Records
---
Amino acid sequence: MSKRSIKFVEAPAEDLKKLEAASARDAGTARVVLGLFGTILGASPDRIFPDYVWGPADLKCLHVRSRNAAKKILTWSFTKNVALGKVLLSDRKISKAVFTQRARSPYSRKMARYVASLRRQYPPLKSGRLSEDGSCRTQIIRILESEKSKALTPRVLSLVRAFTPSTIEVSSIERYIYPRSTGAITILIAEDGYTIHDIRYGAKMPFVDFSRRLIEGWLIDFFETGSEGTHWALEDEFNSSYDALHIMEEGDSLTIQDELGVQLWSGKIKCDRKSGRIRFPKNPDYDQPCALGRWIHWTQDGFKPDDWARFFILGSGQRLRGILVKRAKSKIAPTHESM
């Protein structure tokens, strides 16, 4: 089988610079541009504008120069095999510019002073104890998601105390810490010094029984740093975080259903690791299977890579159900603390 290389198309650099400059001067422009970038990158700028939902019609709100640049970026995003690196960098630059604009306002200065006092009142623990015995362990879970990107106020502190935590920690996002003690709650503060980046709770949870072989849930495309590509997996509907993750392996049995329970496919997993292989653009001596623009590890035997991938990679808010029966003595995906 011949191996082909793939050519990635970079975003128009000059248009990105125009949008960065305009966003640094005006928060309204930044909101629209970050919404555009979030749509292209598959993420929303919820940490900055949590209540904003971007739409193509919003481009009309931009100045004509910014509007034309944004239209070119939007048109580029429909090109096959786009390289997202420059958009990611621009997204980060504009986000920092928004935080800088906010920091200059009287309200931001007042709130930053208030949160600074909370950080002195509730400093991070220097040491702690995470529960881990034969029946229970500590799992880090996110709470009060609706408060993210909003100011840390006395009202939010009251909500945190309602969980009756063993202790409260307030820390900047630069330290990126987790609760160091079971029952503790950590409030992470964003770069502007007063809005909430995340709230994490060290909850005591029972160990998950991974001896069962039949798992029901949702098909997902799983990847993270170190996975070296997308893994086909099932998210157990009865668990959460990494405890719900089950990577599919050779010899497992899988039934795929739509949301109404209609069977779309059923069979035993047989990994085809040759179909769809292409050379790495910057390291052509090596290659890896690819599907729908993603690096993958295998395709189900008898499927084209893109066709198999479409069971797992769907539009926003769409998922297919799966029933997975792990092969005997198969190793289930390891558990981790929630990231």
Note: Residues 214-325 form one domain.
---
Amino acid sequence: MAERYKKLAPLEGPQWSEGSPVVIEKGALLRDGSRNQNLLQLRLRNTQDKPLKAVVLDVDMFDVTSHSLGRIHCSFLDLEAGKGASFGDDTPIWLDDQTARGFRFFVSSVVFSDGSTLGEGSEMESVGETVELAALGDLQDQFAREIALLNAKVVPQVLTTNYGPLWGCTCGAVNGTSEPACASCGLGYEQQLAIADPAYLETQAATYRDQQAELASHTAQVQKREARKKVWSFIAAGVLGVALLGGVWYAAMGRSVTYYVDAPSSSALVTYTSTFGRVVQGKVSTPWKQTVPMWKGSFISITADDAEKPRQAPALRVTVDDTEFYGLPNESEVFTSIYGTCP
């Protein structure tokens, strides 16, 4: 099914006249396929402190040859538009002449919430062109991340632009130059200009790429480590199964097994796995040791991570009676492990 509204042309904007309390932020000439009639859709914004109750615009129309087609009036009534509030999007301006392609806007009158009025009449003119985000090229995503750090609720629509008497926020709102922050989203003008600087964005984007690469590497190591733990769990289960099925039992030889862990920081994370299952020792203060009885021939696996410095492998050794065994760091030196059977 075809869409009901077709955009025929955007309107030049933002448009404003000096001293006016309202600005036309954006607009478009649309075709309503259901009614077979053209219309204007405008978004206006209150740029001053007093709330607006009503705004009346005069619109001069012109055809493609700039021939005048007359003037129409449009009213935006029953408003509660405080400072920074937008309005007009849901009020279609129906055009009697379907050949109209050019428009000039005049603020005929403004009624404030306190009953005071303001008569205008001067033509609203473009204060500059909106700068699209595409102007940043490959840095668009980094700009969006920087904006999210300032206000996660703001989705950038355009680049922050200085229009002289006005300035345009990245959220799409237009503000007076006397406003240090956007009345709509609260983002500061100077803040936005600073993070839109290409040199700054290049530096931040490079940092972000490095962080993502480090995160991916660390994630891969964690996954590899977990895969190894699963393998050893299966081996342990197999050893136990063979022992049970074969009726072979290792005699309890009274072995005394002591684990020693010394991390670069003051604590470590220790995981102990034996023939009888995995036990997570958890976070321990270092240097740390623990002595437990063990059967001869039992499977042993000890893994130690530094709890505060996850990329520094702690020292790990196991003493069985008077014989010492030293753990080796894994390939990335993220953790240390010892595994084998109790002699």
Note: The longest strand covers residues 22-32.
---
Amino acid sequence: MSLTLIADSAACQSIYVQNNGTDYAQAFTSFPGNFDFNAGNELLIQAFANPGYTFLYWEDGNGTQISDNPYVSIYYWSQTLTAVFSGSSPPPVVTTATLTINADNAVIEHVDFVNNAHPNQNQTIYAGSFPALITFNVGDTMTVSAYAIGGYHFSAWVSPDGSFENFYLIGPSVDWSITAEITANPDTWVTLTLAADAGCDHVDVTNETTGVTGTYRNLGMVNANFSHNPGDVIKVQAFPVQGYTFMEWDDANSHLVSASNPYSAAQVNDETLHAVIAIAPQTLTITANFNECDHIDFLNNTTQYQRTITASELPAVISFQAGQSVTLRAWPKTGHNFSQWIITPESG
């Protein structure tokens, strides 16, 4: 025989069942739960509510309500009991703390603050705004990255617990203060200056010689500097925002450096790399029943590009930029008439 126990896990903390005939007992914290017994055994059943909830009654398989808790009964066959509660969970307790970010306004370029738990709190803090005070929920995970002006480099974050690299921080349970330590570059170092078009989300840089890395955001508004020893192999990779695509890396004079992304090269002198980002091309897939269609004329009204697509080329895929207008004209085979175009958007 089996007693099946049902309860809302949000309301019910646990249900305790004891077989008074055998003294065997079991506590259930997930539901449904099943307690096995022999016919004629006396069972004691008790429900415990979570905070914010109150036990109301038991309801058996026949719909009978039993208010006793604990409830004792002799069972001769399998049965179902449902624990019914009233109330609601108390609102979660949110504890906040503050993070003070300190930096020398004369040599800091900016600091990127990313709250991985609450992206709406992400912000870039520029020189002249330090010390900066940020409020967060205890337990939030945050990434804080500092970037220096040309001729300087970020060395470490100094905090009450010691020094850290540009780092990933699990929200402390108390107010916290960190200071960006910025150091002048050795005279022998060279600098890679990074820039990007507005469609760029961020650029990752890796010194493949030393392992030093950096992530640079907001390059459409401000340049960033990555300094290192001459001859180090530097890898850069641009990440466009949705709807845009990487085109190429250009130098300070807008001359092509590479169309590769990522791009790696040994850097001996000061250099500039500009990530050229463009609106991603859209595609128009044109199809028809080739037994009925002779050909289709395509015209891009914006660029004047035109093409005649024969039935044997269908389906045909044509690229265009968002916002451009196109004209399509289908020519049916003899004995057939054009009816309509059916348009199915594949994305925004």
Note: The chain has four domains: 2-87, 96-184, 190-279, 282-332.
---
Amino acid sequence: MRKGLRVTAAAVAMLAFLGAGCGSNNDEDSAATEAVAEIGEVRSLLQQARGEYSDGDAEAAEGTVGDAYLEHFEEVEEPLEEENEELMEELEVLISTTIRDRIKAGAPVAEVEGLIAQAQQMLDQAEDALSSATQ
């Protein structure tokens, strides 16, 4: 009887080990899914900032872009880095620094709109990369 218990315990341990491996993949899928949702928030805030800047409220626009980065894009960084590190780094600089700096400098509206459009296109690529990671 003891031998049977040892075999059963070994089998249970093996199944637990294999199940733990499956769980990590689910965690990665979950992180990628959450990152895609955060990309939606980043998009929305960038559009809001575009409107604020077009309306002449540079301070609000700069703050909104800052929120897009700090509150939402930072949640995208790690999962995106696993899929496309170069894209993640380019987006990080564009959102956290370039757009904000150009707003602070009083750049023409068309320039800031162009940078936001560029960020939106790159967010499309990020979303594609993260979505394919969950399949």
Note: The chain has four helices and no strands.
